Amino acid sequence: MSETNSPAPEAAEAHRYTAALAADIEARWQDAWDAQGTYEAPNPTGDLAGDPAVVARPKKFIMDMFPYPSGAGLHVGHPLGYIATDVFARHQRMTGHNVLHTLGFDAFGLPAEQYAVQTGTHPRVSTEANIENMKKQLRRLGLGHDKRRSFATIDPDYYKWTQWIFLQIYNSWYDADAGKARPIDELVAEFEAGTREVPGGRAWSELTAAERSDVLGGYRLAYSSDAPVNWCPGLGTVLANEEVTADGRSERGNFPVFKARLSQWNMRITAYADRLLDDLDELDWPEAIKLQQRNWIGRSEGARVDFALGDQAVTVFTTRPDTLFGATYMVLAPEHPLVEAFVPAAWPEGTKEKWTGGHATPAEAVAAYRAFSAAKSDVERQADAKEKTGVFTGEFAVNPVSGEQVPVFIADYVLMGYGTGAIMAVPAHDSRDFEFARAFDLPMRCVVQPSDDRGTDPATWDDAFVSYDAKLVNSAGAGISLDGLGVVEAKAVITEWLTERGIGEGTVNFRLRDWLFSRQRYWGEPFPIVYDEDGVAHALPESMLPLELPEVDDYSPRTFEPDDAASKPETPLSRAEEWVHVELDLGDGPKSYRRETNTMPNWAGSCWYELRYLDPNNSSALVDPEIEQYWMGPREGAPHGGVDLYVGGAEHAVLHLLYARFWSKVLFDLGHVSSAEPFHKLFNQGMIQAYAYTDARGVYVPAAEVEERDGGYFHEGRPVKREHGKMGKSLKNAVTPDEICTEYGADTLRLYEMAMGPLDVSRPWDTRAVVGQYRLLQRLWRNIVDEETGAVTVVDGEPDEATLRALHKAIDGAGGDMAGLRFNTAIAKITELNNFLTKAGRPLERSVAERLVLLIAPLAPHIAEELWHRLGHAESVVHQDFPVADPAYVVDETVTCVVQIKGKVKARLEVSPSISDDDLEKLALADDAVVAALGGAEIRKVIVRAPKLVNIVV
After folding, report:
1. Chosen domain end from 458, 482, 510
2. Alpha-carbon gap, residue 813 to 835, rounded angstroms
3. Which of 158, 166, 426, 477 has the fewest CB atoms within 10 Å, i.e. the most exposed one?
């Protein structure tokens, strides 16, 4: 768009850069960018293919984490990351890249469903209205998104492929020998051919359809099982471990969460535990996020050991098999499935009273304790508590090395979700076991020689002795002796001994559990699964996708009193009878089926959305292989491929990020994509925080109505207390971007958010400080435009050397800062340059003005576009080359060298940046101030660090 078709207002006042002029400029250029497709990134092929010359450039795929379209709209904290990625994307375009940058919406989930329950409004209606509102707010910021590629996860054309990916996972198994996923049909072929033994030993042809389904369920990467889950009665749904807070409550709604056994869909993410760990090393992610994932996956090496218990065995996992001789009792998780099978009818003779929990029979004790522990979260159960709780099951197991009978307890400090849900308790060498043994008067045996003077009688100890660098003692019997061996050697010896006898083996354990993938909600992706009359699950064929949600009158899952641990889920879809019970032909004639009435979790749609951005209109494939290879394929420095830059909050470390990595690896194994990782480079932006104010009642008052005076804060004349925290509606301290855009313009808001501090650090919002960036833009405008006439004031001619030095230093510094996401320092350097030019008090040379505009264009695109066109250019500033610094002007003519004697500064010399160490030493020793300071003292040593330091030792 040229100046001729975007005339400026005629009134002289209209030529000043005010909020009104900024609004006019910003609206006009946003319309022009949309009309001209300024931000459209061409693909190498397909319906979005474009200019081959642009495709031939280095590509850059830049992404933000999916926004959820809240009904409350945006506050100024939300777009921090979006503005940052926009600045980076603009800079990358100007440095010769084909940039893909767009934004979709993660639109399934609980908030819309809860709103629907409250108001009767269909979740799609409220969600789509929220999306439109958010789009308007984001558009006003001038974000350079390729809008052709945008979508929402609730679009049937999108979740068709979410369902398709689920079926790829469902129809796959993990071949540990090959180290990757394979189609389930290949496993069936091996069973049929007899090249792989069928579990249970029967021939595949002898199994019924239901039996075959059960066998395959033990292999499938997506499977249904009856297992302990996190049941939240207050929400009426089950939750993944990652959705439960540290205090055992739901992340959303803060309701109590209980353990329950339910049939649910799971993803076998544990099969990929090693690869998820190993491939972290190749990712350019913050170390803190990598550490969180490593800790969550929790790899540990040890051994599995079988303890005989009657005619069955209880298997434990231990990282310290060397201490097996010190195991004096066992503890099972209350949920352990074997407990009910072996609990006797009566207490054995000699049972201690404190072991029984005051109950008449073992069955009563176990039932009561199970109910007690179900009310606790895993975190609460693992936390150190002064009082250790548990009950004796009434049975004894046999220690496999000592042959001793050891009592079997259940206690809540053992979790079913870790290891085998059973432990061998070695109280002399484990602090939690030590406390439990003391509480229940259980024996303790020292088997690791203490390195202090405590002796070897645990009865005299204050706590367990734990060491990985000590000798084994009291560890001989059953044809084996570990006495005198170190821990590492003893582990190897005992593991080999267990393996030879078939009662144990060396193994690796993970903290990571399979991903619970069912939700008892309406507003989520339906599972493309139906069940026949025998309860056998069948996958829908691709031709029946997408399976869309039915229209229902009641969107709410059945909720219960928050503390009703005995309640069971009832899903909204189960009430849609006509949708649930259907007649389908799945290839063997019409039959009656029942649909799955759970829905997928809200994480499903965000596990693969980076792929849809690449090829958003493809209706015949997940993504065109050539397009995926172009944008995300492996490359130098990114051996697993992935998005070039992914920006979002650190709170998703073990939720979205881990789940998306798992889906990527399955799709890679099956040959659907070339990238085994979704996101190569990750950057976590900080938060924008804000002051909030509470009155004497502790109630939040509107922050905008609070006055500061005499060192205090007042609302309606009454004192209030100030606190620092998140910005949000509930704290009544939210500032909307619309407010700032109206008062100052979008470019000012963009500059302020980028100038507040380093992008990865949280920073406080201060509306009063926004004006500083507004004045920067006003000074920039005045340097190029006459405020009286609107005429451009630049002149022809060459700038002087001082101007060139200031210009090229700013170009060099700001360009490097933008490439490194250091936008606050880039703005500081541009401000310094603009102030230098303002103070000169004369018209700018055209070459200086143009490069100044190009320099600020990524940060303040609207004013840059306007000035670029007023300077006579017809093409958009968006696709111009970023200015390049001339090294001759970047290097200072002189630098200051500090001369120290005995560590104290005695002189400062102005020297050439290229001066040698020898020349600098001679110059320093000849300086009059240095000679006087030395006073004839003998010089022992001269340390030179040219060109900035000379240190003289006398």
Report:
1. 510
2. 16
3. 477
